[in-house]
Write a structure and sequence with these properties.
Length: 353
Amino acid sequence: MRLIKNELFLKVFMSNPCPMAISEISDGTYIEVNDALLDTLSYCKEEVIGKTPLELGIFLDSIDRQKMLQLLNEHGYFKSFETFVSCKNGNILNAVFNGEFITIEGRPYLLTVMNNITVKRQYEQEFIRLENLNLISQMSAGISHEIRNPITTVRGFLQFFMRKPAYAHHQDYFELMISELDKANSIITNFLSITESDPLHSQYIVQDLKKLLERIQPLLETNALEKHNRLHYCIADTPVILINEMEIRQMVFNLVQNGFDAMPMGGTLTLKTFSQDRHVVLVVQDHGTGIDETILDKLGTPFLTTKDHGTGLGLAVCYGIAHRHNAKINVTTSSRGTSFEVHFPIYQTDHKT
């Protein structure tokens, strides 16, 4: 760069692992950027030099740079300014900026250093979610026991009285009450399965996910017919994984049911598998209207639901199952539909079972 004649400064700037930029104070025109910034934002140098952040659409909020300049004018620097930036490839990053004035050949410029904290924030959110689940688990066992005891007692008396000839003409009412008690008991069971380390107390086995999905395909297709939707199976041969079959069946049923519920009649839901980066990936993709961005980060929270008659436990159960299988759920959504990807680690033969 012709303006920077200090060789030591230029070497430190260009080789710094932190994304850095030097820009005009007036409009933010970039006069120099280092390789770390280009790699992070997926640009080449020719695309950035001479352009402004506004022209490149780097800041999601266009007034962010004005806020930085206000802090710069007030204090001479700014620190830990957190915002969101857009990469050329479409990725959105959570970033923190530090900045201060520098003088080059008698002219003031803005030196900014960016720190990509996207993964850090994701881990923090996951930690908070797990902490909440841990709190729930500490409360749930005792509460569920206290609730289930009276439910069992009431159900037993209802069954006793419904067999009495005097109440023969009230059979429908008794069956309805028992059905509602069973529904409440089912909700408690699902609630407990979110937090227990192994709610089914069953053996994990090494299994081919394709064979499991083929076994439950008739049940899923029947569900599709009932919903007046179509189910597209695209199941590939993949390496074996260590799973609890009953839990994975429950996860698939929950994700598929949610997909059908999100689509209008006549929609197609795709269920597919593939291998990627030492993981087996299960994908459930619908063509609904997408998930509201305001709740996207809260998915998996117990009792969070957008359905009129939902309990908000289906996805929470799925996230609990994924956690017990050391799997990760990724969600992508738009106005054209939503895709849930569950990444299972491939079973290694040196694992001890």
